[in-house]
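Supplementary Text 2. Reproducibility record for the structural model of the 229-residue chain.

All settings were left at their defaults, and a single model was retained for analysis rather than an ensemble. We include the record here because the model underlies the residue-level annotations in Supplementary Table 4.
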Amino acid sequence: MIRPRHTFYAALLGAAYLAGCTETGGLGRMSLFPSAESSDPVLLASARLAGNAITVTGPDGYCIDTATMRSTANSGFAALASCHIISDGQSGPIVEPALMTVTVSPASGPAPSPEDLAEALGTTLLQDRALSALDLGQMATGGETAFAGSDPKHWRGAFVLGPHLIGVTLYAPTDSPLLGAQGAAFANTVSSAIRANARLDASARAEQPQSTADPLALRLGRLFASNDL
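Retained model, structure tokens:
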């Protein structure tokens, strides 16, 4: 159970879970959605984070938004979206619009469950799925802030890979098939690729960080706070 002092993580989720967000007027806008002022984007099929230990790769038709990508020696952030949308229609096939974020931070214990994540968000867990690569939950609210037209419902999950805590979130427009089972499969595909392509140091796996702080609060803070990137 997440105690009241942990509720500030929900505020972090609302303000900082997208490390690349910018402000346009009063509304947040991801840079991966083109504007008249934006230069020609660089399209990447994959990105390496956390000192090249973690590789994020999108399914066919989805690219990394390089403008929002961040990486340090042991953490990182990447956003995946339609190559066609990122390039303003200049490259890539037309695929279902979606925004997936991947956050990498140091692990301090087991990954928070979908129930933990829902309580931190202050929302309802509509369903959870134990998939091959991670446990994933469908959150009832919170997705509406991702981009214009995104649905409140979204998928969110986390898993530990060696010394790294990996958080994945998938947002989609209202009425998108990615809000259902197709979206869960999407998140599982990306997470499976992360697991398959990880470069993990054996000594790092054996020396998990130790802390006297509340383990769940520490994991949630590292998973959602942008200052870890």
